[in-house]
Amino acid sequence: MKATRRDAGRQVETDLFSRTGAVDDALLERTVQLVEARTGRSLSKEDARQIVENVSGFFRILAEWQRID
After folding, report:
1. Helices 25-39 and 45-68 meet at what angle, rounded to 10?
2. Which of 45, 48, 57, 68 has the lowest tally of Cβ within 10 angstroms?
């Protein structure tokens, strides 16, 4: 269940990180390659999934703030 609150007459999702969208294997593999190349440490697919979700959540928050402003 998503928790929402009213903000300036609009529904705003309060838990933006709870969205679990389908992330395909190609994106996860590319994320692993990119992060491993930049950091020099190995990553699991779970690490890559968390990175993708965190970055996606960050940009969702920025988009929501822009809509509110």
Report:
1. 100
2. 68
